TrEMBL record:
The keyword Signal applies. InterPro entries: PEBP (IPR008914), PEBP-like_sf (IPR036610), YbhB_YbcL/LppC-like (IPR005247). This is YbhB/YbcL family Raf kinase inhibitor-like protein. It comes from the Bacteria. Residues 1-22 form the signal peptide. CDD domains: PEBP_bact_arch (cd00865). Keywords: Plasmid, Signal. It holds the Pfam family PBP.
Amino acid sequence: MKNVIYTLGFGVCLLSAGSAFADQFSLTSPDIQDGKMMSKTHEFQGFGCTGDNQSPALEWHNAPEGTKSFAVLVHDRDAPTGSGWWHWQVINIPATTLSLPRDAGNINGAKLPKGAMQIESDYGTAAFGGACPPPGHGVHHYTFTVHALSGNLELPATASGALVGYMVNANTIEKASIEALYERK
């Protein structure tokens, strides 16, 4: 009898956990995967890099209640700068938008939904700037994070990565990330 009770209790816990995971805010992509190397499609064009400089397609699921907009931030924590490198910062993505197509971060922003705003990356342009680690510097970790926000943000297109990060984090309800990798030998 004791074993039956334990088994039933364990089963209820598994069902509850499965339900909780099923409803979690999550980020997926057909182009990049957590812990896997990105393709040259997402490598920068410039600084000695010769990639296609296209942002990956991104899709998010189960936005939390109260979401008014989204922000997507891409950061390389391994860049030898002392503070990492901001590769892409997009804010004010409408709450009705649940994905961005590949190359949404191009300089003209034509593939972004109306109202979304790109802020200058550490490359100095308001667009996606692909991976471009120094040759021989080892594997770099690129964190793509979508933030569900409690409202739109008012920031200048030239805001620093620190200011964008501060404002985004101060208004985040929930976030989800993919950490992709890249290396130049």
